[in-house]
Design a protein that fits this description.
The chain has about 220 residues and is mainly beta. The protein folds into two domains: about 35-120, no CATH class; about 125-215, no CATH class. It contains two helices and 16 strands. The strands form three sheets. Strands 1, 2, 5, 6, 7, 10, 11, 12, 13, 14, 15 and 16 form a twelve-stranded mixed beta sheet that branches. A hairpin with a 3-residue loop joins strand 8 and strand 9 (about 105-110). The chain is elongated.
């Protein structure tokens, strides 16, 4: 009985601490929040490889560092290196790296080395901040309970969340169920949305309201 009381007291105390007093969340070694880009096909009519590649733009950033080292609003890359044969036609985000690559007679036009392709749950454009969400395993007996970690993509920034609203995304119920399953299994859910302060019994919390959900595209079967 005494042991249970001590445990309950420790849990209650942790739930009532303002989040700024918490230790830094532990970064999941399996999740890399860097190297995420939106992209669009280059439809200009000029000779390849100067045209016909991709324009890529780092998410959550005003400028993107291009193959020549210069930061621009978006970068042209003449080649997509896609070793896993991922179908990017339905993708909304790409994860990878922009690297220099010289083309004979054209100079350094760059290559995008693809690591992952990610599709969106709906046709709408995600607004706000694109993040990775994880269940951090914290369990409380009162609210707010900061039981989620929010990794801001392409930034060295991690926030603690007391709640996540997936229904605001407008995604199909099956996609929302898949998103919940990812979180329950300890995986990272990618989403776009905004944070809002929420009143709770033991103080103010912060909830993430998603307006877009993202899921990885699996390699096509041979």
């Amino acid at each position: 009985m005494y042991t249970r009381s001590i445990v309950a007291l420790l849990i209650f105390s942790s739930c009532c601490i303002w989040p700024s007093a918490w230790a830094e969340p532990v970064v999941d070694d399996d999740f890399n929040p860097l190297g995420y880009y939106t992209f669009r096909q280059d439809l200009r009519r000029c000779v390849s490889p100067r045209c016909g590649g991709l324009f890529v733009k780092a998410v959550n950033q005003k400028l993107t560092r291009c193959a020549d080292g210069v930061k621009r609003t978006e970068c042209y890359v003449a080649l997509l290196a896609n070793p896993h044969g991922l179908a990017i036609g339905s993708a909304s985000l790409l994860q990878g790296r922009i690297r220099p690559k010289r083309f004979s007679g054209f100079g350094n036009l760059g290559v995008f080395k693809l690591r992952a392709a990610i599709s969106s749950a709906t046709a709408s454009t995600g607004e706000g901040t694109v993040v990775g969400l994880q269940d951090n395993g914290i369990v409380c007996i009162t609210a707010p309970c900061f039981s989620y970690d929010e990794f801001v993509l392409n930034r060295n920034k991690i926030l603690l969340l007391s709640g996540i609203d997936l229904e605001a995304s407008g995604a199909a119920e099956q996609d929302i169920d898949n998103a919940r399953r990812l979180l329950a299994d300890g995986e990272t859910l990618l989403a776009a949305g905004v944070n809002k302060r929420m009143a709770a019994r033991a103080g103010a919390g912060t909830a993430f309201f998603a307006n877009q959900l993202y899921f990885p595209i699996e390699p096509e079967s041979p």
